[in-house]
């Protein structure tokens, strides 16, 4: 809805600050190499890579809308959310 962007900004920032505070408090911090960063970047961007047979965005939108309407309405059940 209309509050999604503000929720994302506020709670995303709070989550990020909390995560960074947690990591700073660790006595043994995890090591992150350039290879880790490259692998995470590749994984995060992979859905945006062109495919041999690209999906029709209108079909994808219609399928997503149908799934969300059928299974993720206002009243939600865990098993239906797992199916979505």
Descriptive account of the structure:
There is one protein chain. By secondary structure, the protein is mostly helical. It is built from four helices and no strands. The longest helix has 22 residues, at 4-25.
Give a short overview.
This protein has 84 residues and is mostly helical. It has 4 helices and no strands. The chain has helices spanning 4-25, 34-45, 57-71, 78-83.
Total helical segments: 4
Q: Residue ranges: pLDDT <50 for 5 or more in a row?
A: none
- Large-scale geometry: extended
Cα distance, first to last residue?
A: 19 Å
Q: Give the biggest beta sheet.
A: none
The total tally of domains equals: 2
Overall mean pLDDT: 89
Which series of helices and strands comes N to C? Answer: HHHH
Task: Give the SSE layout.
Layout: H1 4-25, H2 34-45, H3 57-71, H4 78-83
Annotation keywords:
84 residues; mainly alpha; 4 helices
């Amino acid at each position: 809805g209309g509050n999604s962007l503000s929720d994302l900004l506020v709670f995303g920032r709070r989550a990020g600050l909390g995560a960074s505070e947690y990591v700073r408090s660790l006595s043994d911090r995890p090591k992150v190499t350039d290879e880790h960063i490259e692998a995470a970047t590749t994984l995060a961007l992979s859905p945006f890579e062109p495919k041999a047979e690209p999906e029709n965005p209108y079909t994808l939108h219609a399928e997503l809308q149908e799934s969300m309407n059928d299974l993720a309405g206002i009243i939600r059940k865990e098993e239906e959310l797992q199916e979505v």
